[in-house]
Design brief:
By secondary structure, the chain is mainly alpha-helical. The chain has a single domain, classed as Formate dehydrogenase/DMSO reductase fold, CATH 1.20.1630. Helix content is 76%, strand content 3%. It has a two-stranded antiparallel sheet with strand order 1-2. A two-stranded antiparallel ribbon has the order 3-4. It is globular, with a radius of gyration of 20 Å. The termini are far apart.
Length: 334
């Protein structure tokens, strides 16, 4: 009897992608907000709020990339060539952002250089991730089992719009994170920026929700045919309720609720994306099962993954526990 490991690897890959988007999303959002902070002391506090944990957050990106390569090699062979340029921009942005953490606190005369590196690295990495996502949702030109498009297929209104939308989304995560980690004037400033970002996120959710079914008839059929429309209606309804909850929390005295609500909003969006493309891993042509490696390969890789995954989860949880609480003054990363 052959055990189907595709659902297991699908869950692992989905978890890795979602955890990366949430955890690295908020520190990229902090980086995008960075140059607009009220003063230099606020910028120090913003960087110190994410400096101890940002590199651990990127562990999920590595897990997602390796999981895609190992468990779904055909999907990897199509998605990566189709997204070479935005992935390169993303990696360069993450590198510049990482270097900025190390040098900003040590180089006082040229601090403005590393301030700019932190901002532009965060912005470009975020926008590039959005472009990759937009290209993924739109689908790729595939002939047989090969990518048949050009390296510039990602250039288009929909991928670029999703890139801008993800910038608003990460700014929302970053601003609500600062509401949780800071206090006083900086926290008040973060609340105001979170409200502005929420406007942008809601607008882009509406635009993308209308645009996506127009791009692909099968997605329209999935969402708007009967009885699917009745079964799937709770997803957009939950999204609207969570957006209202987030808006209300930004005007309350609660500090942790906005960040929780922002994460929940991302979760509903992730659920909607999963529903739209299921059961494909290369929209809208190749299914998870068609792209999967052999059962023996998946089983061998699963042994190591089931050993490492709990370690990653425990490390992530422990790091957030150790660095819990408010950022105080100049105490932080040096």
């Amino acid at each position: 009897m052959t055990i189907d490991l595709v659902p297991v690897w699908t869950l692992i890959l989905a978890l890795a992608v979602f955890m990366y988007v949430l955890l690295d999303g908020f520190d990229l959002g902090v980086g995008i907000l960075f140059p607009f902070a009220p003063d230099d002391a606020s910028r120090n506090a913003m960087m110190n709020s994410v400096a101890p944990i940002w590199d651990g957050n990127e562990t999920w990106l590595i897990l997602g990339g390796i999981g895609l390569f190992a468990a779904f090699p055909l999907a990897f062979a199509i998605i990566i060539p189709a997204s070479y340029f935005p992935i390169l921009v993303m990696l360069l942005g993450l590198i510049f952002r990482g270097v900025a953490f190390e040098f900003r606190m040590k180089e006082h005369r040229a601090r403005f250089v590393w301030d700019n590196a932190f901002f532009w690295g965060s912005l470009l990495a975020t926008f590039a991730q959005g472009v990759v996502l937009g290209s993924f949702v739109r689908g790729y030109t595939v002939q047989g089992r090969h990518f048949a498009g050009s390296m510039f297929d990602w250039v288009g209104p929909f991928p670029l719009a999703v890139g801008v939308g993800l910038v608003f989304g990460y700014v929302l995560l970053g601003a609500t994170w600062l509401v949780t980690k800071t206090e006083g004037a900086l926290q008040h400033w973060a609340r105001s920026k979170a409200r502005l970002a929420l406007y942008g996120v809601v607008i882009f959710i509406v635009v993308v929700s209308i645009w996506t079914p127009l791009l692909e008839p099968r997605i329209a059929q999935r969402w708007f045919s009967w009885p699917n429309i009745a079964w799937l209606a709770p997803v957009p309804i939950a999204c609207a309720i969570i957006a209202g909850w987030l808006w209300h929390s930004l005007y309350s005295v609660r500090e942790g609720t906005p960040f929780l609500a922002a994460m929940a909003l991302f979760l509903t969006g992730y659920a909607g994306l999963s529903i739209s493309i299921w059961p494909n891993i290369v929209p809208h042509t190749i299914s998870l099962w068609d792209a999967a490696s052999s059962t023996k390969s998946q089983a061998f890789l699963l042994i190591g993954t089931l050993f490492l995954l709990p370690i990653i989860v425990m490390y992530t949880g422990w790091s957030y526990y150790v660095f819990r609480g408010k950022v105080k003054g100049d105490a932080g990363y040096h």
